[in-house]
Amino acid sequence: MYGIFMECWVSFKLYFGNPLQALLLVAAAIYITVFEKNMKKKLLLGILPLLVLAGFLLPVTKMLYVAAFDDGSDTYYRLLWLIPSYVVVGYALCKFAFDLGSRAKQRIALVCSLAVIVLSGSLVYINRYMSVAENFYHIPQNVIDICDVIAPQEGEPRVRAAFPSELVHFVRQYDTNILMPYGREMLATQWDYYNEVYEVMEKPETIDADLLLEATRKTGCSYIILANDRKIDKELSMCGLKVVGVVDKYNIYADPEVMGHG
Amino acid sequence: MNPVLAFLSLVIWLLVVPLCTGLLFNFILPRHRRTVAITFILGFLVYISVFELVAISSMLTVVFSAFSYCTYIFMAISLLLALLGIVRSVILLTKRNMHFLTLFPGEDHGEIRDYLNPRADLKLFKHNYSLESRIYWGIFLALMVLQLVMSVVMASFDGDDAYYVVESLLAQQADVMNTILPYTGSSTSLDIRHALAVITMWIAFLARMSGIHATIVSHTVMPLFVIPFVYLVYAEIARILLRDRQQVTPVFMVVTALLLMFGNVSIYTPATFLLMRTWQGKALVANLVFPMIFWMFLWMIEEIRAIKELVIREGSYRRYDLYAERRLRVTPWIMLGMICMFSGVCSSLGVIFGSALIGILTLVLLFLSKRWTVLVGAFLCIIPNLVYLAIYFSLFQS
Fold first, then answer.
1. Interface test with A, best of B10, B179, B183, B347 (most A CBs within 10 A)
2. Rounded CA separation A183/A171 (Å)
3. Chain A residues with CB-CB distance to B268 below 8 A
């Protein structure tokens, strides 16, 4: 039981990221519970959130959740979404500030409250998964440029292309007429899939060109996209492939043998 | 498509059609809640519920070009509803019935009978905001506009897009509904785990109607619609919570806007989902569906007194009172039923969690209202969720 409680506690800590945010929510709920005179608001915004928080930390809740959902361990944190956190904190801060007597005190309290939110939080736009958009698609421009080179024209059959793992997320967000021998499913650590092309293209430090071609030809890849700094034992153009384009650091190789069969 | 026409098409399918649909059905709303905002939300709920029915039916019954069937059927039904809404509005306007819609929350001034009626709640009528409150509204609007601009100029990376966004694009480009594996493009059987959450198909519908690439609709257009929508729901919540001091409502909105902007304390928070994965069903569940459920219960809790006062005079009902009471009692449950359908559109998680949230809040409502009939209301409104789960598990086992 203690072990499961600790798992819940870890989920709780991971969810709030820093102790101040959790403290802010708990303090807001307690403040409403103690100082709110309206029973309805006290119940909804004070007592209920505290009960849900307590329920979240109960081992039995997690046991039931994991039993009910396949991915229960990964998604347990979503129970915390049931607490209207922003409403609770927002209402408590407004009540705190505007229950003070004079206008001056109210304004000072409001500014301090807003400062607490800013200082205890983390601005979404500066996190590492955010970047300046290169286009309206919000995908890397080099992926679009590569896809424009290899995409089939109207009426032509779809093509299959092997991309480096850093690009596979984006290719089919731009053009679904480009098929891939492997995609994001090979990159997610929780899934342990096997893919022949991935095995020879991504796993070895130095790619074995013959093995790569054997795999891509077997899966019908008309194109191979490789970064020019990717180690390979033999230049692909020496194996009969043609460079049909270069975008940033990526060489686009066409395989006439597969295209001829296509 | 011409960019101007594409923009107009998006305005029509995101704003005009839901609002006009709301105009058709807003007679179910109590008079003091018949605002543009609540009418729009009501219309959107009807619109998205219809989409769910059409999309799931098309997906399960049509083999080839399923998405085209879905598009045409939904387009016909939603345009018909919107047209009927316009016709109703014109009829009401020609009869000089100006109460069928008020512009902004609290825009409706009380009438003489409201001021004479000892049971009328004057707090529900128009307020004149002070200069300070207007400044707070200005700050809030500036924060919201900043978030909208950032949602266009900043791109976020999320691996799940390789699935959800591609599902939308496949519908637009290949005319299929969840029968091609998004990651690689191989054909597959219907992916039950995600298929019933047809939000991806709705995005594809918008993409097809506007002629804009589905990825652009997901990443650039959806935040421009969803973020203000989320704040609209928060504003309605604030209006109820701060009924006695409406001047504070804009302050609440400023606090909420900052909490969302600075809410990226982990990858799990609703704020992170809203501003980084706006177009995904989970983000909509956490930021729209759950707050909407909460809002509906605040609404019902606020009406407890009004219902009691109408019920006390049960023996001497006038027609007006009877309709008023029905609106007070039944409308929130109808809207909750449609919110449940909306949760199913977003995610199967929303269906289960939404039902749980309704269960918890119903117990609170039962405690506060002492009316056992709320249990009936709660059961009836989660019927869409039960049907959804029945379909989900029957498909899973077949």
1. B183
2. 9
3. 14-15, 77-78, 80
Each residue's pLDDT tens digit, A38-80: 999 999 999 999 999 999 999 999 999 988 887 767 889 999 9
Residue range(s) defining the domain that contains residue B350:
3-102+111-397
- The dihedral through the CA atoms of A38, A39, A45, A47 has a sign that is positive
Residue in this structure with the two tokens 């559109």, named with its chain if needed: B345
CB A225 within 8 A of CB A253: yes
Is A114 within 8 Å of B356 when comparing Cβ atoms?
no
State the Cα–Cα distance between residues A87 and B221, nearest whole angstrom: 26
The token pair at B395 is: 């498909």
Verdict on whether the full-model pTM lies above 0.95: no
Domain spans in chain A, listed from the N-terminal domain onward: 2-126, 141-259
The position carrying tokens 């909105």 is: B253
pLDDT single digits (tens) B148-190:
999 999 999 988 999 999 999 999 999 999 889 999 988 777 7
A121·B263 Cβ contact <8 A: yes
Structure tokens given for B261: 């902007």
**Each residue of B211-246: pLDDT tens digit?**
999 999 999 999 999 999 999 999 999 999 998 888
d(CA B37, CA B23): 11
Please give the tally of structural domains in chain B: 1
CA-wise closest residue to A72 among A16, A7, A14, A17: A7
Complex-level ipTM beyond the 0.90 threshold:
yes
Which residues, 6 or more positions from A9, have their beta carbon under 8 angstroms from its beta carbon?
A: A57
